[in-house]
Write a structure and sequence with these properties.
The protein contains nine helices and eight strands. By secondary structure, it is an alpha/beta fold. Helix 2 packs across helix 3 and helix 4 crosses helix 5. The longest helix is centred in the middle third of the chain and has 23 residues. The N terminus is likely disordered. Bound molecules: iron/sulfur cluster (SF4). The site of iron/sulfur cluster has 15 residues, from helix 6 and helix 7.
Amino acid sequence: MKNAKNQKPAKVKIQSGGSGTATGSSSVPSVPQPSTGGVSNLFVQSGRVHSKISPSRLKDLEMCPRHLPEERGEVHPITAEGTLCHKAKETNDLSGLNAEQRHWVEMCIAFEAQIRKGYWKRGEKPQVLTEVKLDILDGIFGYADTIFVDPEGTTADLIDYKFGFQLQEDAETNPAAQAYALGMFNRWLWVDQIWVSYLYPRLEQVSQALFHRRQMNEFELRIRTTAARVNDPHSPPTPNTDVCLYCANKGSCPALHAQVLPIAKRYAEGHDEPIPVVPTSVLSSARSSGRS
Ligand code: SF4
């Protein structure tokens, strides 16, 4: 019986492979601080409650524990387009899409159909769950786009759709992917391995990884370490172009200023030199001689 995970979906290129043998298969200093517990760990965006340390924020917070996402007045057109496509995919209603968007969503639907076929070939009838809230740990949670899980099978799938132009961290090392897998292993205790697929319809690429239950401690340690750094007020900001570019602390972050504002730094260092003090007697003598 051929595993559908070894069949490459049409027009989709592999960005990177999973950790298993099926690599490349197609299936499937003084800045605000988030906390990991309690009500303060929540915020509302687009009508949905999120945890401040969410799977999607883990990468930024790992890069800099003081990172704070910028709030933009208007939704970026690419983000709005992604939301539209996600909704169309979720409801299977493509009527509000243009031809290009329709093509992307159809690619997602075809990808899922291929994964479903793999389960059927193994004699399994998976549940397909969309927009699933997954509890990760200590109040950290996130929403997974699509999950395939069979009541009796030991392999599950997690699919995340990325409708933007940017490729993200490979699924293999992506902290969000690992967080979602951790949430799935905690929820479905009989699942022993999870295929994670990040599908980029606009780029016609997919990044995949196969995670195993034995990796749970490794994933948990990574998330807890990131959370501990975020919650430690002594954790210094760690500037990096990719993460600082979209940080709301740009205006007040000394670590960033020291790194990217060389002129300001040079002048600030110059101001450390003491201004010579002119003795009063010299000033008096200058005034009396008419040179004041
Ligand atoms: S500006 Fe950069 S270094 Fe400073 S808090 Fe933000 S992400 Fe961290």
